[in-house]
Amino acid sequence: MTLHIYGYAGCTTVKKAVRWAEEHNLGAHYAHFNKVDDLPSQLEQWVKIAGIDAVFNAKAQTFKKLPEDEKLSITKDEPSMIKAMAADPRFIKRPVGTNGKTVLTGFDVSQWENEFA
Questions:
Q1: Which of 15, 86, 95, 115 falls between 20 and 30 A from 26, CA-CA?
Q2: Distance (Å, rounded) from C-alpha 117 to C-alpha 114?
Q3: Per residue in 45-99, pLDDT tens?
Q4: pLDDT per residue as tens digits for the range 105-116
Q5: What is the mean pLDDT of residues 27-41?
Q6: In the prediction, which pLDDT does 9 show?
Q7: Helix 109-116 vs helix 12-23: crossing angle, to nearest 10
Q8: CA–CA separation, 91 and 109 (whole Å)
Q9: Sequence-ordered list of residues with C-beta below 8 angstroms from that of 69, at least 6 positions apart, any chain
Q10: d(CA 4, CA 15)
Q11: How far is CA 23 from CA 15, 31, 64, 65, 109, in A?
């Protein structure tokens, strides 16, 4: 199965994940969140596999800076969180790595080696 990595090209953690995949000759495909076809559906799939807490980045500065009522509105339920991530991908933990069966967010070398190498 092909490894797909999603994120922002300027993110150092995404760069580390892409570099790791290249060093392991995994033939990974990288895509910027803004270039993902039907991001809402992808997010639903990632959440179904990994869970909302693994995909939604509540530690993102963009999220932290929001007024409390807006944070509550976004996090009231899973569909609202998915809608918010689709509208502003900065709410997605990055990188997202998936082979179709497994979805990992963030870049923990040991996790990625166990699942993708």
A1: 86
A2: 6
A3: 999 999 999 999 999 999 999 999 999 999 999 999 999 999 999 999 999 999 9
A4: 999 999 999 999
A5: 94
A6: 87
A7: 40
A8: 22
A9: none
A10: 13
A11: 12, 18, 35, 37, 12
The first and second tokens of residue 12, run together, are 């150092």
Q: Please, which residues bridge with residue 105 across strands? A: 96
Q: Output the CA torsion sign for 67, 73, 76, 79.
A: negative
3-state secondary structure the chain: CCCEEEECCCCHHHHHHHHHHHHCCCCCEEEEHHHCCCHHHHHHHHHHHHCHHHHECCCCHHHHCCCHHHHHHHCCCHHHHHHHHHHCHHHECCCEEECCCCEEECCCHHHHHHHHC
